[in-house]
Amino acid sequence: MARFANITLGCTAFCFLSIFLYALVKSNLNPPGPMSTYYIFSGAGFILFAYVLLKCDVELKVKISLLTISVGVGIYALEFTLSYNKKLNIEYIRAKLAEKSGITYDLRHRTQVWMDLRNSGIEAYPLYNPYDNMDFKNSEILPLGFISGKTIIYCNESGEYIIFKTDEHGFNNPEGLYDEKNVDYVLIGDSFTQGACVKREENIAGRLKIAGNRVLNLGMLNSGPPKELAILKEYAKPLKPKIVFWIFYEGNDHEGLDFEKKSQLIMKYLDKDFSQELINKQALIDKLLIEQIEKDFLLLRETSKTNLIKTNGNYEASFNISLSSIKLPQLRRRLGFHGRECENIFDPLFKEFLAEAKKTVEDWDGELIFVYLPSYDRYQEKVNYCRKNFLDKEKEEVKKVVYDLQLPFIDIQTVIDSHPDPLSLFPFRNYGHFNTKGYELVAEHIDKYISNHRKKNGIF
């Protein structure tokens, strides 16, 4: 038992020392963040367990080691439970709120919707980001759009799954718009721009079209500034629209930059003349994506049998425990140790990508307009003030870049802040993308800019 106790105490002391060193490195690499708590906690833990290991008798060592193991097992059991419940709770809450509102809520998992459509003879594909699983190192190209001309299963936040047919380059438009004569305005952005999770006619582009504007929607889920610049150069540049609206979502767009800049190919889009000529390679793009998704489909079918847990016969949730759980993200969040959520880390590359986007658009005598979308985190009933403070600081950095580049700035946050009931703009007043009312409000203010632009120039 003495050896067992020494090993347990030694390993625990080593863990605390590792946390201390990790906090030290992070604080040196990044701007000041909430690392003082980690210093105190890990430093005290290391000293305590090192003292017990070196100074205490065997009996006390055994008792403390058993207590340490019990507490450790309990903590990780709680973390795994919270990780499991995270998705389940969102779906459960939405379904319950829909029931109270008399709205029918589709309780199927998206994988089941996919299977049902396939079984009915419809060639459908789920819209998701296959790039994490795909090995593009040996690929001829890096796709930026999605599969063209196919039935796509998107998301469900308001009760029904959004299913639409992609255009000839895999974006959320009707076919036939890729002609200079058909497009005056282009929207660039992530899933909010793409139109998650509402019908096509209810998203930003759809509302603008109803108002009489000729719009092409080039929004794509999980896109950060590097990918958005690439999409602009590949698909908007050939059309030379009068205005490009760069729609920035504060919830994760800047974080997307951190991931996408690791791609050497994506970084090449900072070069003025670089292009993959993707607009002429859709057949190859379709082939690559379909092969990958079909491969993932087989895995998802097995996953749906083993990892999708049914609750009360209705709800399914993914029990997705990954290596990130070692850091206890769910538990730390609930205890107020928000870590990255509070760190104001702004990448100067953001300005480079936006500057290149501006130059690209101005080269064809177009205009780039920056649209700022706020996160639900600002309006939730239990506000995470650490997160809100982070968003405020990030917004100031973003605005500084936009103003330095002399770009028009449409601030949707101020619009929603002045709304009498901001939560009514989100599905069931809960976390998610905008609902139809939210998208309508965004489109209304973009349309106002377009109208003023027309009056100012008197040409269209």
Q: In words, what does this structure look like?
A:
This protein is an alpha/beta fold. The chain has two domains: 2-82; 110-306 and 347-457, Rossmann fold. The protein is 50% helix and 9% strand. The protein has 15 helices and ten strands. It has helices at 2-29, 36-55, 58-100, 110-119, 191-194, 204-210, 225-236, 253-260, 264-267, 282-306, 329-335, 349-363, 385-404, 412-417, 436-457, and strands at residues 124-126, 151-153, 163-165, 185-188, 215-217, 243-249, 308-311, 315-318, 367-373, 409-411. α13 links the parallel β9 (367-373) and β10 (409-411). It is globular. The N and C termini lie far apart (84 Å). Mean pLDDT is 84; it is low at 29-33 and 305-321.
Please provide a brief summary of the model.
With 460 residues, the chain is of the alpha/beta class. It has 15 helices and 10 strands.
Blueprint (SSEs and pairs):
Elements: H1 2-29, H2 36-55, H3 58-100, H4 110-119, E1 124-126, E2 151-153, E3 163-165, E4 185-188, H5 191-194, H6 204-210, E5 215-217, H7 225-236, E6 243-249, H8 253-260, H9 264-267, H10 282-306, E7 308-311, E8 315-318, H11 329-335, H12 349-363, E9 367-373, H13 385-404, E10 409-411, H14 412-417, H15 436-457
Parallel strand pairs: 1-2, 4-5, 4-6, 6-9, 9-10
Antiparallel strand pairs: 2-3, 7-8
Helix pairs in contact: 1-2, 1-3, 6-15, 7-12
Tell me how many strands there are: 10
The CATH topology of the largest domain comes to: Rossmann fold
Determine the N-to-C terminus distance: 84 Å
**What's the CATH superfamily of the largest domain, by name?**
SGNH hydrolase
Average pLDDT taken over every residue: 84
CATH class of the largest domain: Alpha Beta
